[in-house]
Write a structure and sequence with these properties.
The protein is α/β, with parallel strands linked by helices. Among the domains are: about 130 residues, Immunoglobulin-like (Sandwich), CATH 2.60.40.420; about 100 residues, Immunoglobulin-like, CATH 2.60.40.420. Helix content is about 20%, strand content about 20%. The protein contains 6 helices and 16 strands. The strands form 4 sheets. Strands 2-8-7-4-5 form a 5-stranded mixed β-sheet. A 5-stranded mixed β-sheet has the order 10-16-15-12-13. The protein has a 3-stranded mixed β-sheet with strand order 1-3-6, with no helix packed on it. Helix 1 runs antiparallel to helix 6. The structure holds 2-acetamido-2-deoxy-beta-D-glucopyranose (7 copies). The site of one 2-acetamido-2-deoxy-beta-D-glucopyranose has 3 residues, from loops. GO terms for molecular function: electron transfer activity; metal ion binding. Keywords: Glycoprotein, Metal-binding, Signal. It comes from Actinidia rufa.
């Protein structure tokens, strides 16, 4: 029995290692820039932060706090709900504290300083076992971004810098949604022009949302500017500026899917020439861009050698390869409803992977 158990543990480790590619242990800085403190926006700060993270056994939580001002205790769910710190599972009084997640399931953390937990210094997370969660395939679908993560949408000591840093490593595409979390009645979200943003003149706004969470879907390419119209909040740094750089690759094919052969007479489809691998928000540095308009229309393809839309490898639909003078004959129209997903083969492969790993595990057991 004992040796079988050892083999099972070994097999589990092999499976886990193979599934993860390596011992991918993630370190999570609790609350990110906020740290472990009484959050300005209440308990939603840490639940929002938690919802943006995936926790796996072996990961490390770093609670960053000043030792004499806070502590961190792991508690049972009932104690978490009641903010009862009488009987914690563990407690650490020196910050920063690193806590390694050793078991799957729910974990609850609070600060035991009087009033801190009830004011929102509490964190609940779900930890998944390492082997059971193969990461989902990278989808090219639209994203939802929580502005400032756990900082919420607030007046912060270094607000402008914090929101600048938050936006700096993100690529915003049409269809993505920004979520602004704030306390109702204390803030709002206004989209404004660049001039209004720079001058913090909120007399006229493009849009105004007064209830939290404010969800704003990005519908146009170019710069977007957001601020709060409460007096002096803008000048205190409650400002966010972003660049929307293009559309996602997946969702809607061009109106007529019949990609014509590269004949120079045919009007080229308006391909969104977003260079996918660049993580920064630089626009395509094409040399022959005819009109670099920053407006909502994506740049048209300039050369007749423009690549067809990068959807699926659809062969040229015309049965006659010779001079097809009518460029946009609609295809038999069955492909528009359900194009074959480009990753069907890979998802099949990833489905087969656990089976292979299971057989490894079974083999090790015998
Ligand atoms: C903003 O201030 C917080 C502390 O209040 C700090 O952790 C964070 O790094 C700062 N961010 C920037 C971009 O300066
Ligand atoms: C806090 O929890 C302890 C048990 O851990 C219990 O004895 C006590 O009554 C609880 N206090 C409150 C105020 O519920
Ligand atoms: C806690 O984790 C951080 C980030 O990985 C690391 O830099 C630091 O040395 C760790 N501290 C301790 C006491 O292990
Ligand atoms: C953890 O996951 C379970 C099942 O999905 C769910 O019922 C529970 O609310 C989650 N807990 C937390 C803290 O997210
Ligand atoms: C603010 O902008 C409005 C137009 O939206 C303009 O009429 C007003 O003069 C501006 N105020 C200041 C102080 O510049
Ligand atoms: C803000 O107010 C709206 C409408 O009354 C409500 O649905 C929402 O839950 C409130 N949000 C917060 C964070 O209190
Ligand atoms: C958007 O991109 C342009 C061109 O790279 C740049 O000049 C501008 O500063 C960016 N604006 C924001 C808000 O990031």
């Amino acid at each position: 029995m004992a040796t079988n158990l050892n083999k099972l543990v070994l097999a589990t480790m092999v499976v886990a290692a193979l599934l993860q590619g390596s011992w991918a242990q993630t370190t999570h800085l609790v609350g990110d820039a906020l740290g472990w403190t009484i959050p300005p926006g209440g308990p939603i700060a840490y639940s929002t932060w938690a919802s943006k993270n995936t926790f796996t056994v072996g990961d490390v939580l770093v609670f960053n706090f000043a030792s004499s001002s806070h502590d961190v205790a792991e508690v049972a769910k009932a104690a978490f709900d009641a903010c009862n710190s009488t009987n914690p599972i563990s407690i650490s009084t020196t910050g920063p504290t690193n806590i390694t997640l050793t078991t799957a399931g729910e974990h609850h953390f609070i600060c035991t300083f009087p009033g801190h937990c009830t004011a929102g210094q509490k964190l609940a997370i779900n930890v998944t076992a390492a082997a059971t969660s193969p990461s989902p395939p990278p989808s090219s679908s639209v994203k939802t971004y929580v502005v400032g993560e756990s900082l919420g949408w607030n007046v912060l000591p270094n607000g402008t810098e914090a929101y600048k840093a938050w936006a700096a490593d993100k690529t915003f595409l049409i269809g993505d949604t920004l979520v602004f979390n704030f306390v109702n009645g204390s803030h709002n979200v206004a989209e404004v022009t660049k001039a209004a943003y720079s001058a913090c003149n909120t007399t006229t706004t493009i849009s105004l949302t007064t209830t939290s969470p404010a969800r704003i879907t990005l519908t146009t390419v170019g710069e977007h500017f957001f601020t709060c119209t409460f007096p002096s909040h803008c000048t205190l740094g409650q400002q966010l500026a972003i660049n929307v750089t293009g559309t996602t690759t997946a969702p809607s094919p061009p109106p007529t899917t019949a990609a014509p052969a590269p004949s120079p007479t045919a009007t080229p489809p308006p391909t969104t020439a977003t260079p996918a691998p660049s993580p920064t928000a630089t626009p395509p540095p094409t040399t022959a861009a005819p009109t670099p308009s920053p407006a909502a229309t994506p740049p048209p393809a300039s050369t007749p050698t423009a690549t067809p839309p990068p959807s699926t490898a659809t062969p040229p639909p015309s049965p006659s390869p010779s001079g097809n003078t009518t460029p946009s004959t609609p295809p038999p129209s069955e492909t528009t409803t359900a194009p074959p997903p480009p990753n069907s083969a890979t998802s099949l492969a990833s489905a087969a992977l656990p089976v292979a790993l299971l057989s490894i595990a079974v083999a090790l057991l015998h």
